[in-house]
Structure formats: structure tokens, C-alpha cells
Amino acid sequence: MRRAVELRSGLVVAHNNLGLALRELGRLDAALEHVRRAFELEPAYAPARTNSGQVVLSSGRHDEALEHSREAVRLEPNAAELHDNLGNFLRVMDRLDEAWTACVRAVQLDPALATANAHIGLISQKLGHLAEAVRWRNHAVELD
């Protein structure tokens, strides 16, 4: 990805993917630089927004992460993965009712999205609905 960015500095997907790789390596400042560059180049590119949210969430900046995630959902309201990411951010922030709503929306858009089913299970567990949590998490395992 670094080479792709060197060859074509305006390649949005390369900046986005390089940012993800750098995040995995724990290089959060560099990761954020590239995912931000991706959405500067293409403001309507929702994956860069949600990935930016993931990077800043890793840095502990929850409110900023939530802002990016909400923008990604606004840009692509029918993308189940984006609703799931939003729900997961909200779950981490203990905003469980909002998290539930976002993850349920993700499952409505894509019933086979295992991560959304798993996140609903985690939310149910945090809410103390253990039987429901087990059902959702077991379904996630069946899907994946």
C-alpha cells in the first residue's frame, strides 16, 4: 500500500488500506494520517470515515470516533457493516440503547452479518439479558 501511495498519491483506496495496515501495526498517528487523507481526497468515501473512527477509537478519542462513524452511516445508509461499526463504537462507550438500535439495523440490512449478531449478543450480555445474549452469539458463530 505504501508503494501504491508513492506511485499514485491521489489513490483513495490505497491511503485507506495503508491506514488500516498501520493501525494493525499500532502506528496510530500514521494510520490516522492516511485514512484522513483518503476522505480528504474523496469526502463521500464512507469506508475512510468509519476506518478513521476505528483509528481514533483505538486512541481513546470516543467522541471523535463516534462522529466519523455517524458520518459514514450518513454517507451510506444501506451499508450494514457501517451500522454495525457504529453500534460497536456505541457499545464501547456504554451507550447500549443506541448501540442496540444500530446493530439491529445492521442485521435488518444483512441478516448474515456475523459481527452484528455477535455485537447484539455482547450488548444483551451487558444489559443482563443472558439467554438472549447466548442466542445472538450462537447465531453469530453459526453464520461465521
Q: In percent, how much strand structure appears in the residues?
A: under 5%
Largest sheet: none
Count of β-strands: 0
- CATH class annotation of the largest domain: Mainly Alpha
Low-pLDDT residue intervals, each spanning 5 or more residues: none
Describe the protein:
- 79% of the residues lie in helices and 0% in strands.
- It folds into two domains: 76 residues, Tetratricopeptide repeat domain (Serine Threonine Protein Phosphatase 5, Tetratricopeptide repeat, Alpha Horseshoe); 66 residues, Tetratricopeptide repeat domain (Serine Threonine Protein Phosphatase 5, Tetratricopeptide repeat, Alpha Horseshoe).
- With 144 residues, the chain is mainly alpha-helical.
- Helix 2 runs antiparallel to helix 3, helix 4 packs parallel to helix 6 and helix 7 packs antiparallel against helix 8.
- The longest helix is centred in the first third of the chain and has 14 residues.
- It is built from nine helices and no strands.
- The radius of gyration is 16 Å and the shape is elongated.
- The chain starts with a helix and ends with a helix.
Write a brief caption for the model.
The protein is an all-alpha fold and 144 residues long. It has helices at 2-7, 12-24, 28-41, 46-58, 62-75, 80-92, 96-109, 114-126, 130-143. It is built from 9 helices and no strands.
Protein traits:
single chain; 144 residues; mainly alpha; Serine Threonine Protein Phosphatase 5, Tetratricopeptide repeat; 2 domains; 79% helix; elongated
